[in-house]
Amino acid sequence: MENEAVVMKNVCKDFKVLNRHEGLAGSIKDLFSHDYKTVSAVKDVSLTVNRGEIIGYLGPNGAGKSTTIKMMTGVLEPSSGEILVNGKVPYKNRTENCENIGVVFGQRSQLWWSLPLIESFKLLRDLYMVPQKEYDEMIELYRSLVDIEPILHKPVRQMSLGQRTLSDILAAFLHNPAIVFLDEPTIGLDVSMKSKIRSLILGLNKEKNTTVILTTHDMGDVDALCKRIVIIDHGQKIYDNDIEHLKNYFGSYRTLKLCLADGTWEETLIDEKTTDVMDVIMARQKETKITDIKILEISTEDVIKKIYEGGSV
Amino acid sequence: MSKKRGLGFYADIYRKILIQDLKSKMSYRADFVISTFGMIMTNLSGFVTFMILFHNFPTINGWDYYHMLFLYGFSLVALTPVQCFFDNNWNLRFMVQSGDFIKYCFRPVNVFFYFMSEVFDVKGLGQLAFGIGTIVYAWIHIGIPVTPLVILKLVVFLFTASLFMIAIMNIAAATCFWIKGSGYVMVIMFRFKDFAKYPSSIFSGVFKVIFTFIIPIAFVAYYPSLVILQPDNVPLLSWLSPLLGLIFFWLSYKFWMLGVRKYDFTGS
Fold first, then answer.
1. Can you tell me the distance from the alpha carbon of A51 to that of A54, in angstroms, rounded to the nearest whole number?
2. What separation, in Å, do the N-terminal and C-terminal C-alpha atoms of chain A show?
3. ipTM value for the complex
4. pLDDT digits (tens, 9 = 90+) for B211-224
5. Which of A110, A114, A119 shows the shortest C-beta gap to B106?
């Protein structure tokens, strides 16, 4: 098997959108209108993901993340460019591609709503034609990683959001796919469930060498799971490197927190290369009373924010 | 690397999903009882309307009471598969609009199959029993001979008749991939099924053409049933109905799948 799980070369995806007119007359006009505008959701993205990697695929809302994932899973056809997933073109071999991938869309369960989890697992085993021995081994592995007993016989409908997400992730790994796509897996979960899910993902990745492509807005996920991140904005790839590199690059940035007399904290992001922290404090102190000072290293969250806001890398 | 999934695989998967589905439905006893009761009442009221109508007009276009009854029973049975196996079509537009539909595209099986397999509507079974009862009752009174050949014909033509309604509903449901108001299309098409229980000969001119060739409601009962009811005088369209049914079903399936392909899956 090749070393690359996903190869994308100059991939673009355009959508045709009808220019809608207002009012009743407008809607009638729309019926016969051919007035389309083209919206580019993904522009010239090239990307290679190696086997066993966990990558964070980040970007603000509407940046083109979902569209990219949909192309990799074979649901959408790219307008131009080339995609190979496990060495195959996903759009042309959708069913074949589906055998080797697992997908979790946070908050959108793919399990049979009314069935107990174990019955869903058995149906998936048959659907993916997983040999009984491999299935048993996988369930054993699950048992060793998380406490699945309390949810195994519970219908998905009766589960809490956390249990449902856990179930969906387990279901996505059940047929031991080469790649698992996780779209916001920890959205809306409490802190302990988040960490449980993160360690589960890490454990499965380690045991099965599964490639994981993770999209998230939660930098906690990124810090816990990803060595490498790819950032996309306005359909274009703007960053693709190790997370450490990113931190080094923005290493000269400090978050300065000043506590004012009324007890509120004021936050400022400062680049030490261009601005002296002491100057800022002194300037502010002339204007108002400062009761406390904190200087923090830049967090991943701030780095990403910086990049979204247009800080070049 | 790729695994072969043939007809046997699909039949097996459908059976397993069905068993699980029925098991979970049984566990909601109140729901099960109420929907069964509702189904019996629906059929009963339909039947009573029919009786009242035919006591006032004992024959319509040369069709007497028992022939009409046979046609009625025939349409009920022919409409069972669409009710039992393809009921999820009614949910399609909600799934497409909310974006939930995408989950059906992530499994290594046919999307149409996977989508339809999710819902089995038990209510259709009552309709089936009612329909069979009506056919048998009318059959005895008309005095149609019971031979293996006639039974075989009945089964084959019931099967093909059912394909027409399934195809109509597939097409109506799949319009949601293109238009927002597809709910109306479905409701209108579903209403048309009520015309299936009357002989198409009562419709004149334009309507006859529409119900034969545009929205082929006449094939849901009328044309296929003539093979049994008028064995000496079977129109060509009746003999062709199995072939036409298969073609029409296949086209509706292709249209449905085209919708899946064309759909943008915008929004996450």
1. 9
2. 34
3. 0.84
4. 888 889 889 989 99
5. A110
